[in-house]
User: Fold these one by one.
Assistant:
Number 1:
Amino acid sequence: MSNVLNLILIIVISILSLLYLPQMLYMILGLFLKPKRYKEAKVNHKYAIVICAHDEEKVIGKLIDSINNQDYPRDKFETFVILDNCVDKTKEICESKNVIAIENTSLSHGKGYALDFGFSHILSNPEYDDIEAFIIFDADNILTSNYITEMNKCFDSGIKCATSFRNAKNYKTNYISATSEIFFLRESALVHKVRSLLKIGTFVSGTGFYVARDIVIDNNGWKFFTMTEDIEFSINEALKDRKIGFCYDAEFYDEQPVDVKTLFNQRLRWC
């Protein structure tokens, strides 16, 4: 009986090891290979910065400030905040910082529905016909000053959709936020980096990515409404044979959970 159990255990471990082999490859190569970098852009393309916000008065101002402080030409991007059922002062803060606040008037709420509403509003307005791509952020993000410049290099190289380097702005708070930061550091410094070098495409992870206007039109907006709409979108692009790129030098900071309950609920939702 013990021999049979040992055999079963060996088979299970072998299968799991085989399935995890790509991850091991990413970790090994990621430690030694230099990240892919893009040439200086020949054109400063026009972007729409799109932020979905639900009662984000505590953090939205810092994100907008980091957007307004970009070293990218100011006439080459517009910032849109999609107000998703807000009852606090998010709208007033947006208006005071001269960004475009759009009320989500659809009956459905949530990030996926808010993005779809925002894209529809922008694409149907002739005033924004010169926008070539959308850059998506969460309200608690903060950008480095060269973020759009670096993403523009990637877009100018012909990559229609790409994600960026995700870091944590509160990793020093406690061991919980530090653990989350290690997870995303691994994702950016190892997985995304190696997949972009191997030219096999990667995935978007919630925030900090751009998608070309023609992809949004082809997808009929943003029709990804599950709790993990980012992975749903990534799978959709893979099925259409569109590779998602990675821009190592475009860095942004994201806020991580600081208590076990929030961390557990977040991971459970992803699962």
Number 2:
Amino acid sequence: MPRHITFVFPGQGSQSLGMLDSLPDDLVLKYKSQIIESLQFDLIDLIKNGDIEDLNKTSITQPAILLTSFLYYEYITNFLNIEPNLLCGHSLGEYTALLIGNSLSLQDALSLVHKRGLLMEKCEPGSMYAILNVNLDIINDICNKVCKETNLIVSAANINTPKQIVISGNDKAVELVISYLKDLGFKKKIKLKVTVPSHCKIMQKSAIEFKEIINKLPLTLPKYDLIHNRNALISTTINDLKLSLVDQLTHPVMWVNIMEYVKKFNGIIIECGPGKVLSGLANGNNIKKNVYSSSSNNFLEDIKEVI
């Protein structure tokens, strides 16, 4: 076993129909009654047999990815007899990390992220772009300029790597930032397939309502070290933990800082859940010792080889 194992959990955008198919049926069905009791609908059937438009709804995507990542974690750790030294998750993935750390029960975690998704869906629509190969200071300057010119909202939302930063905000403001960047010669960008502009001040009202929900939950501090999106720090009190979760809605995901923290342990990263987005971001932050759980049909052997 290596000196240090970090488990990382993906956020929205990693979902796909059939993303549970690589897992044993007995494991997938093990929690079915708890899932239905928590959500009042059959999330497993939706993932296996549903419509992609339904799965892509924020209030469905969030519990679906959390559940899938949780089941991958259970499968991997039980089979390989390993456990994490450190947990972190990208945006929604932070809630999977809390579940793994026993801060939340499965039922509470599913219910919480479903409600979080519903609140986010109520926000005014907006858009998000991944900007490539542009310094964060330049992006911040242009976002501030556009905010002053339009009295609208746009800001850096995900600081993923030094060369990939996602912006989020009102459609008009976001498009104007893209236009200004193009005028400066920065043309590489990817429009994200979202209608909910996460991690910006558009989420302010949702954050206030979400705080009321969080305050009613029986949260405990995680049993493993868990790094927060908001500040790349570990909470030492429940109040700090709750504040980090509420602030996450309106503040950027500081993934570069999280990866810098992880890097100092010189261990490995296991991306646990659907897709391989976070493995790509690990590479973008010069972390090469990483593996993702959906790497192949033999992903357990792939992970075993790395550890």
Number 3:
Amino acid sequence: MAGADPASKPTGLGAWMVLTIILPGMFMNVFDFFAVNVATPLLHRDLGSGPAALELIVGGYGLTFSLGLITGGRLGDRYGRRRVFFGGMLLFALASAAAGAAPTSDSLVAARLLQGAAASIMVPQVLSIIRVSFSARERRVALALYGMTIALGQVSGQALGGIIMSANVLGLGWRPIFL
């Protein structure tokens, strides 16, 4: 159709498949941010985490996440959004494993700081990939799914996080929320 607005052309199946890959990364970020809030009593009991350590375990993630967002976005611009997204996701998974295996409050704080930094590398790529992968018309749907993913992560972080800890999966207490 000559003269048609390219923004109105349908997006290919590949873009929707990419969305199904990047949205779980966004979900993990939000879930992890909220799930740790319900774990604080167990962290106090199991690791002897005092108020200062608990603040760093909960808030340190948000701190390194927010401090690294601009740098994370620039890394995606410079080295490629998908490459940086998967690098951030790998670093996030490793930091999550370190958090789940943390033997002390100090090591959990360090893992949470690293998780936040990894999320700051991963998360900016999600919106960038959506922006460049979808036509203007279909981008609205992709952004709605993005918003739903964030909302689902917030709610399930607290609800599912509590259920996971109550179930005491394999006797691991709070650790499965990170694993």
